[in-house]
Amino acid sequence: RSTIVSSESQVRADDRAHVFHSWSAQGLIDPLPIERALGSHFWDYQGRRYLDFSSQLVNINIGHQHPRLVAAIQEQAAKLCTIQPAFANDKRGEAARMIAEIAPDGLNKVFFTNGGAEANENAIRMARLHTGRHKVLSTYRSYHGSTATAITATGDPRRWPNEPVAIGVVHFWGPYPYRSPFHSDSPEQETRRALAHLRDTVVFEGPATIAAILIETVVGTNGILVPPPGYLAGVREICDEFGIVFIADEVMAGFGRCGEWFAIDHWGVTPDLITFAKGVNSGYLPLGGVVIADEIAETFRERPFPGGLTYSGHPLACASAVASMQIFKEEGIVEHARALGEDVIGPELAILAEKHPSVGEVRGLGVFWAIELVTDREARTPLVPFNAAGPAAAPMNAVAAACKERGLWPFVHFNRLHVVPPCTITEAELREGLAILDEALTVADGFYTA
Ligand code: PLP
């Protein structure tokens, strides 16, 4: 039997027969076969081209098939594909050094993983061993990955069918001015109340039981929630007061997405551990990790760190991270992402918000933006309910379909459209995509009831 896959029908047949897909009821999905990708676009087998406003899973920060990144991987593959983690290796060391150089001062070591969930899993393990405490505090409206502790730390419905998994995780509310859990009416009030709530949570959980506070620096999938001024500095203070490890999850927000190397650079705050993945090498190979403060690394100077992975610091993945960071520097990609946010996405989304009644709020930074859709601006009623699925999600599905028909691949979550193209997207491509969004928002306006 031929194993050459040449046609769309063969790709579809193999997929339907043998691929077990993430997060899905296997009989209710029909994955679109994709043939190729380049830059900000990908193509299906019908030759239809899609402008990738999702960066796949918000990870192709450098764009698809960057020729220099592909070449660097080929070069490394010809030299040394893999060597186990106990050896020293040039690309592994170089990647770790380059990451330490862009991280805040005092974070100088990197533990490599295959992705984001494992990064959070190991960051929590480090915090627990460093403090001798067991609890982890994380927020509602968060995603931290789908391994045991990471999914338990997650504050969205993906956790529910996985419970009970890990012990010792407590959820609290983070700031979200547009739908304030604290009923605040200004960002300043939101910061004050969110910090008071976090401090109360720490005090009542028992500070001596809490190893870590784990937060997404800018919450990603759960809404592109940019922390209001002073919030992250306040979290740092609470951690210092009670000897708690501050873990910043930058799996989605890091490596240019927010117009900085690390999103936390916006606020000049230094966490104890930073977890990363996705944008570090744009997923050309699986890679993630934890950047570790000197004080925590010191805990494991004489005492072994009880964790590891066959592919920790995989040379091919590390070579791609080195090349990707070099390309970012030489092509000014972080600066480009920041400028696109300030000069194009922010102003253009503000115009769309003026024009379309269904737009309740737009927010974001860099190439990391959300459009929150509502049926009533005054009441802020979401266009579809929280955790909507099936028929309840129909209005958002209609908006997504309007984008796809026009050649734009959107990122949709509950009642939000996220504008998360590659950091390398050109201004012309970006404007083309925003014009399509403008048309698709007319579909959302059709559901407006106020
Ligand atoms: N943390 C955040 C903020 C994420 O967005 C994700 C994935 O979307 C993860 C962790 C998990 O990363 P991975 O899917 O690589 O395990």
From TrEMBL:
GO-annotated molecular function: pyridoxal phosphate binding; transaminase activity
Keyword terms, alphabetized: Pyridoxal phosphate
Protein's recorded name: Aspartate aminotransferase family protein
UniProt keyword Membrane present: no
GO cellular component: a single term: cytosol
InterPro entries listed in its UniProt record: Aminotrans_3, Aminotrans_3_PPA_site, PyrdxlP-dep_Trfase, PyrdxlP-dep_Trfase_major, PyrdxlP-dep_Trfase_small
Cofactor(s) needed for function: pyridoxal 5'-phosphate
PROSITE patterns: AA_TRANSFER_CLASS_3 (PS00600)
Family statement drawn from the similarity comment of this UniProt entry: Belongs to the class-III pyridoxal-phosphate-dependent aminotransferase family.
Coiled coil (UniProt feature): none
Residues spanning the signal sequence: none
